[in-house]
Design brief:
single chain, about 160 residues, 2,3-Dihydroxybiphenyl 1,2-Dioxygenase, domain 1, nine-stranded mixed sheet, 4 helices, 9 strands, MeMalonyl-CoA_epimerase, Glyas_Bleomycin-R_OHBP_Dase, methylmalonyl-CoA epimerase activity, Methylmalonyl-CoA epimerase, mitochondrial
């Protein structure tokens, strides 16, 4: 019984491992998508959220940093393979303030993925009719150029691209 079921599963595994790679269907590009840099979470109480990750879950957590040009305070939670970015409104015109008006308890705000050439990415994405929410990259929380892609063009997800 066991031997025959192991024998029947063998060809399936070989078939899967020898199947064509998904990347063969993707045209070559002037820029390359990199690793997930962070997942951003809007929070109504930054100190409570910071304490959850630091004191309850035991994560390494940064101090809060004000980014007035983006209208946010940020805190980064270090994880083994990526980071969480806790976002809280800075000023009345903060995009996080309007997000929290609709989502009182907070929630996922955006994902950030690294790219090796943000200018080339912008050019190509515009050609593919993906809306970019600014004309030029802005300097993000890590001191690197960033852009945001319109969520309606990205299946409901606000996507941040950051120069690696």
């Amino acid at each position: 019984g066991l031997r025959s079921s192991l024998q029947t599963s063998g060809p399936t595994l070989r078939t899967l491992s020898s199947s064509k790679s998904f990347s063969q269907n993707i045209p070559s590009s002037l820029w390359k998508l990199g690793r997930l840099n962070h997942v951003a979470i809007a929070v109504p109480d930054l100190e409570k959220a910071r304490a959850l990750y630091k004191d309850v879950l035991g994560a390494q957590v940064s101090e809060a940093v004000a980014l007035p040009e983006h209208g946010v305070y940020t805190v980064f939670v270090e994880l083994g393979n990526t980071k969480l970015e806790l976002l809280h409104p800075f000023g009345e015109k903060s995009p996080i303030a309007s997000f929290l008006q609709k989502n009182k308890t907070g929630g996922m705000h955006h994902i950030c993925v690294e790219v090796d050439d943000i200018k080339a990415a912008m050019t190509e994405l515009k050609k593919k009719k993906i809306r970019i929410l600014s004309e030029e990259p802005k300097i993000g929380a890590h001191g690197k150029p960033v852009i945001f892609l319109h969520p309606k063009d990205c299946h409901g997800v606000l996507v941040e691209l950051e120069q690696a």
